[in-house]
Write a structure and sequence with these properties.
The protein is α/β, with parallel strands linked by helices. The protein contains 19 helices and ten strands.
Length: 579
């Protein structure tokens, strides 16, 4: 655990950890020494030699004073270290998370990261501040006592040494039981956290199907599994603690019996034996707590291991300096192959070019790989084969900041932050002036939203933008893209679920974007597809057709079927039945 902690804290905070461990060691040894001096003091007092006892009192008092000072120092350093752990781990997790491929984030990892950032980090900090000290003291103080026992009577000292492995074995078995149950409890906790997030996020769907009073079965099952896992953890920890306590008491009884036997044979002075048995009690007392404390610290070590697993996830490799962009606004895919995780390829040899300041429409059946293409252009993940170029340069040869400076993304699922309306638009370009923000908002039709909100530009949109409708959130997203004024704009079904008013506002904004940027649009809107300079048809992860609207209609292939199906669907209308 200490090695892992030193690794995650980094070189800047390792001196603080070393100082803390040093004071812990000093506390344990000084406590053991203070107790060890009880033997000569008590032995001489019981023998009536007060002068001899007085000679040892300064040594005992000095060791006790040193122990108090060391204990105070380690307590202060422990609290400081706990704060360092909380701050450092949260910052490191946050800083590392933003470097991970976006493909790493899914329903499982989000809940896992949430649990690690709360429960695990606080468990690590609390264990280091409060539990590491009694554990270290519980080991070093008895070790000091063993040395003193060997010096006073080698037979009792040797017996203590023989008992130590038995106590440590019992503690190890206790730790194993607690660790196994902790892994099960953590898995159940992650699943429950994922289900809670899912339940909160999907309230619209659940309520639409009446899943309010009856509950949500997957969440209930996950919570029940977490309850069972927590109970199993408690049940499994009890035998371990009993075993550890039994081993300590067994060894203590054996040492008392050995001491009595030696006293009966006149091999040891009874007065000295009383003092030595007091020392034995000091030996076994802390060890009785070591098993329980070690188990809890082992669980904190498991939490620390989970933190390291996240920090060990490989970020997308990025160069120190970006290769210069040769053709601003150009997008080029060459022989691109890609698949998610260990699954089959979603894209197989996809290749096409989008010239600067043109609009290309991506069409195809659901699952053909359209959204995957846009995410590879933004380098959410790296390709398995082939090359993706933006501005004439491979996206892998560009730093994330330089690549994203060329791109503006507008997706169907828009997320707004719990901030003001103007604050959410300004995310597109934080250094933009108010006039520039207002212009982008006006072009996207956001000014109409501002007029109806009581607080205007200062109105807060709520978490996820819940104070706005879906179409209004989409207008804000388009306003962000307009404000950013990037050379390339990627739009994924930006107008798929909009009412006519919102669609008209977004379409006007798209025309403004088209005047200055390269547009790659995923859409099923016939009016948008028709006006594209180029249409790329994807089918089963490959480019099936490519050309203008007229050329592809004349070809009579996939695009022609898509066009005729959408045209028939657009012509549907509800009429009154004739009698």
């Amino acid at each position: 655990m200490i090695r892992d902690l030193a690794t995650v804290l980094g070189p800047d905070h390792r001196p603080a950890l070393v100082r803390y461990l040093g004071t812990l060691a000093l506390t344990g040894v000084s406590q053991g020494a203070a107790v060890a001096f009880v033997v000569p003091v008590l032995g001489r007092l019981l023998a009536g030699d007060t002068d001899g006892a007085a000679q040892w009192l300064p040594w005992m008092g000095g060791a006790a004073a040193l122990s108090l000072l060391a204990h105070y120092a380690q307590a202060m350093l422990g609290f400081r270290l706990a704060l360092v752990i909380l701050t450092t781990l949260h910052h490191r997790l946050g800083d590392h998370a933003v470097t991970l491929p976006l493909g790493w984030f899914d329903g499982t990892t989000v809940g896992r990261l949430s649990r690690i950032g709360t429960k695990s980090v606080f468990s690590i900090a609390g264990s280091c501040a409060h539990l590491l000290q009694p554990l270290v003291t519980g080991v070093l103080a008895p070790a000091t006592v063993v040395v003193v026992m060997l010096w006073h009577d080698w037979r009792l000292g040797l017996a203590v040494l023989v008992c130590s492995p038995l106590i440590l074995l019992a503690a190890r078995l206790s730790i194993r039981l607690m660790t196994r149950s902790d892994e099960e409890n953590d898995r159940a906790g992650v699943e429950a956290a994922n289900r809670v997030l899912e339940f909160a996020r999907d309230q619209t769907v659940l309520r639409a199907f009446g899943r309010t009073t009856e509950g949500y079965r997957p969440l209930e099952d996950a919570l029940e599994e977490q309850r069972i896992a927590a109970r199993r953890q408690v049940v499994l920890s009890i035998p371990g603690m009993l075993l550890s306590g039994f081993a300590v008491q067994l060894c203590f009884s054996a040492l008392i019996g050995l001491g009595a036997l030696l006293a009966l044979r006149d091999s040891v002075d009874p007065v000295e034996l009383v003092a030595l048995l007091a020392l034995v009690a000091r030996f076994t007392g802390p060890l009785a707590e070591v098993g329980e404390l070690a188990g809890v610290l082992r669980m904190a070590g498991s939490d620390l291991r989970r933190v390291r697993e996240v920090l060990d996830e490989s970020p997308l490799p990025a160069p120190e300096r970006s290769t210069p962009v040769r053709t601003p606004g150009e997008i080029e895919l060459t022989g691109v192959r890609f698949g998610y995780a260990e699954g089959p390829d979603v894209l197989d040899g996809v290749g096409f070019t989008v010239p600067p300041r043109t609009m290309t429409a991506l069409v195809g059946a659901s699952g053909s790989g359209k959204t995957t293409v846009t995410r590879l252009i933004a380098r959410f993940s790296d390709v398995r084969g082939g090359t993706v170029r933006v501005g004439g340069t491979d996206v892998r040869e560009q730093r994330t900041e330089d690549l994203m400076a060329q791109l503006a993304l507008v997706f169907q699922d828009v997320h707004l932050f719990d901030d003001t309306l103007i604050g959410n638009i300004r995310i597109g370009r934080p250094d933009a002036t108010d006039d520039e923000v207002h212009r982008a908002a006006r072009l996207a039709g956001v000014d109409e939203i501002v007029d109806r909100l009581p607080d205007g530009w200062s109105a807060r949109v709520g978490e996820g933008g819940r104070a706005l409708s879906g179409g209004e959130r989409q207008r804000v997203s388009v306003a962000r893209a307009l404000l950013k004024n990037a050379p390339v704009v990627l739009l994924d079904e930006a107008t798929a679920a909009l009412d006519p008013e919102n669609e008209a506002a977004v379409q006007r904004a798209l025309e403004e974007l088209r005047a200055n940027s390269t547009l790659l649009v995923i859409t099923h809107r016939l009016s948008t597809v028709m006006t594209a300079d180029q249409i790329v048809v994807l089918h089963e992860g490959r480019v099936a057709e490519r050309g203008t609207h007229a050329d592809l209609l004349a070809l009579g292939g996939h695009y022609a079927r898509f066009w005729h199906e959408r045209s028939r669907a657009a012509g549907w209308r509800i009429t009154t039945a004739r009698s």
